Amino acid sequence: MNRLEARSLACTRGFATLFHDLSFDVSAGEWLALRGANGSGKTTLLRCIAGLTRPDAGAIRWNGESTREAEGAFKADLLYSGHLPGIKDDFSAEENVRAALGLRGVAVSDHAIGEALAQVGLEKRRQLPARRLSAGQRRRIGLARLALDPARLWALDEPLTALDDEGQAFFTRLLERHVASGGVAVVATHHDLATAPSRVMRMGA
What we know:
By secondary structure, the chain is of the alpha/beta class. It has one domain: Rossmann fold. 33% of the residues lie in helices and 27% in strands. It has helices at 42-50, 71-77, 93-103, 110-119, 135-148, 165-180; strands at residues 3-13, 16-27, 30-35, 57-62, 65-66, 78-81, 153-157, 184-188, 199-202. It has a five-stranded parallel sheet, sandwiched between helices. Strands 2-1-4-5 form a four-stranded antiparallel sheet, with helices on one face. Helix 3 (93-103) packs across helix 5, helix 4 (110-119) packs across helix 5 (135-148) and helix 5 (135-148) runs parallel beside helix 6 (165-180). The longest helix has 16 residues, at 165-180.
């Protein structure tokens, strides 16, 4: 059973304490919404979950095992997306999706990538360099990646940035499908999605 646990996490930035004695758990079929003002620690918490930032104290476990001690298995189950789209300007939409999945060892056919890009409205722009796409279209490349990646845990930082209503609705459907299949998600977002989170954690409160 997929389960993410955080116990007594603490993290500082300079002399500022972002969070202290923070604990939560999210199980299969659930997603946690992180809310809070800019600088309240949402991004830092996501980076701690992803193993990119080490907390000052506390532990993070995935399926009962420390994410540091079982790093290989954990990373295979994790899809992390930061607040920037993570797109290579010289790559086409198709190449960006293939590269992102390839870094995680996920093999996907050209046909499947083409279908995913069509679903997000990029079928006619799949071969264009990403630099020629709008901010919202670049975000849609990330949506195509989400649709194809089998990761069981999502850690997403403001995934709705620059997306129009249609793009946000598509993300909501992806999230609903992910949790319905037993996935787990932790999402930092200022938006209220049509699918309600299992719980909300307010950072900096």
